[in-house]
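Lecture 7 notes: from sequence to structure.

We start with a single chain of 736 residues. Read the sequence below before looking at the structure.
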Amino acid sequence: MSELFDAVDALIASRSPLPPAAERKRLRQAHGLTLDEVAGALDVRRATVSGWEAGRTEPRPPERDAYARMLKQLAQLYPANAPAPTEATAVPDTRAPAPLAPPVAEAATTRASSTAPTAKPASRITTPRPAAVPPATRPTSQRATSQKPDARKTAAAGDADARFENGPLAVVDVIDGEAVAYCVGGLVLDVPAKSLPALVEWTLREGRLGQPKLAGPGKDADPLLVLTEAALARYGLPTTLTKEERLAGRIPEGHKVIKQLARAHWQLTKRGFGPWARIYRPAQGAERSCVQLCIPSWDALDTRHWADAAQLPPAELARVLGMYAARVMTPRGSTAVTGLELMTALHPPTRASEPDADGRRHSEHNPGSLGKEPVDCAPCEAPDGHPLLAGLPRFHQRTPAEVLVEEAYDWARPLTDAECLRPHLVGIDVNMAFAAGANGLIVGLDAPEHVKNPVFDAKLPGSWLVDLSHVDLSRVKLAKDKWAELDGALLPSPFTPKGEQPQGPAWYATPTVAYAVELGYEVRPIEAYVRRDTGRYLDAWYNRLRDAYIATMADLGVGADLTPEEFLKAMDGYRQRDPELAIVVSAIKATVKGGIGKLRERPRGEGWKPGQPWRALARPTWRPDIRAAVISRTRINMHRKIVKHAAFTGQYPVAVLSDCAVYASDGPSPLDFLPYRDGKPLPGGFKLGVNPGLVKWEGTQSVLWGEGVREEFNAPELNLARYIKDGTVTGADHGE
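Now the structure, written as tokens:
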């Protein structure tokens, strides 16, 4: 008889009543339970529970009876018509990465729907966890995961725009044969698409991915899909590129997936289907239909800037890229490409005009931008191979009087006898040096005007042919009518990247010539290429990247209001506190440096020959003069601090590499040679801190190490700043 009873019990259990799929999800979320917790209790896979909540599958015995029992108890605790709860708590999920702490000002912008509170029995020991948005407000394909909201909290504009409620991007993966999209904030969407064209359609129609424009007349950011290797296989793409494909930067035009896209009337940009592919249809009016792909296994995420981000699990990768998108912008390619695109996003080339007589608006130039059309550079600003130089003899080496050479420092000198008696070499590094150089910089917005025998004007951006060989660094003006006597032989020249004294007329950017005047010397330019339409084009770019850097460093425990001692302590091992967040810091810094470098992008293969134009020249943002001005100002900023420090302390650097300076010191800390008094730094000198333009400790080695490596490599002026970080002598550049 017992067997019959068991059979009856099994029959009843097989038909245990269950609430509708949406109600199952509501009840779980109301109690703050994660999919992983429910799956663990029922001894099933997480995807199985997700399928039950989505209504794709139904539970079977014996799990069905237990699942029904759980839902019944939850329904008693959280009736469907109960008033909204006022407190959210939940058991933490060990699978989820820790949330990125948003800045205080940004935290207030958290989307209400993603922080809807839920009630919970007070007897459970729990930690706070925001509940998910009610199912009625989300796509039916959406499901919640264990990751806590993070990057979404920082995307103030995105939270207010329902079109992009799922964030700027998603990492597409395959679980149990089903495609899923990991979004920022711990959200996971079911992806029904079986082909790449269908994936693009789904993204634009149902994904609710993207990012609002950064400036009034600009454009919204297109949604970004990051494809894992499993997703690549699902959609018929290779998981890695062949050597030939890597060199070409794309898969062949005849690939079956590209043919699928063409049949569905989708197009690719000129760079083809590579690590960063853009799939689009021509815009219809103001409506854009474009999706960008990022393929980490095709080396889309350069390890120099993104570390091991490409190896992260999908949820963690969504976290890293989502924070970068929230604080900088949705990636548009490499960090260099994104840095350049950020300039345009903040200063769109056109805007809508005022209504005409018929009430119609037209596209017009946006003041303060670089416009829609490229402009020619001055001949002295053109890099070798430029069409402007096509008339020069082959292999002609241009002299300083023919070419503008504004580059970062790479200078070193032998140690003096007194410096050799000191035990330590200490390196200090300027934070975000090129960003600081861009801050407040007046640049030209139009084409250059050639002027003979001009009167120098420090407010007029351009390139100047002038002789600065008479500037004597042994006697310089520090302030109005205040001169200082220095040992000029121990200082690099501020006018050349190698620190050598100029030997005659040479081309310089405005900040370099202005510094010669600041040091107390007269300048008489021979000729110049100046730009009359000027503006602080890079200010908004600097501000956004500065804020991104400072906020992310604050999340890592390095605040902007620390004392010098607290700052050095906070910087010690800060990357290990959250390695993923440290990746965001590296990417932000690379965005600065790469964006400036892109202003003078050189030819990149494609059969280019000297004298012919290359693709980058067609961009309004191909502006070597702006790049030169930023680098000039960055180098001058460093030299100004070096001079102030030398005049006050009598200490001189032994090496300078870009934004890193090395000094001989009696102690191993920067505080052993930086002249702080009562916690206050030397005005105009080096100051420890996290803000751009301030300095951090780069590394310390012994003087014996420095002399030893120079002797080993038979290089008396080996640039020790290049290796001060860890003492390993390689070809790596540790500068920003």
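The longest helix spans residues 624-649. Keep this in mind for problem set 3.
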